[in-house]
Amino acid sequence: MIQTLRCTAFALLFGCTAMLAGMPSEAAAQGTIAQREACEGDAFKFCSEFIPFVHAIENCLSRNLKRLTPACQIQMRGGTPVSQRRR
Fold it and tell me: 40-78 burial, b if ≥16 CB within 10 A, otherwise e?
C-alpha cells in the first residue's frame, strides 16, 4: 500500500515538471527516471504534506531549491547544471 502511494505521488509530482520541459504527455505522466531518482527523497523530506497535489509539490521544491540535493536542483533547473547554463 505504501509503495503504491509512493509511486502515485511521484507520478503526479513529475508529471507537471515533465510537461513544463516539453515532454510528450504520456511520458510526462511519470516524469523521467532521472527526475524521480534525483528528487524522490527531497519531495518526501520537504514537501510530503502537499502530496498528491502536483503544483503544490513543485512550488514547495522550488521554494526549497537551495536545500535540495544537488541532483534534484539540477532536475528542477531543467536538467542542466548551473555551470553549463547560459547566464
Answer: bebbeebbeebbeebeebbebbeebeeebeebbbbbbee
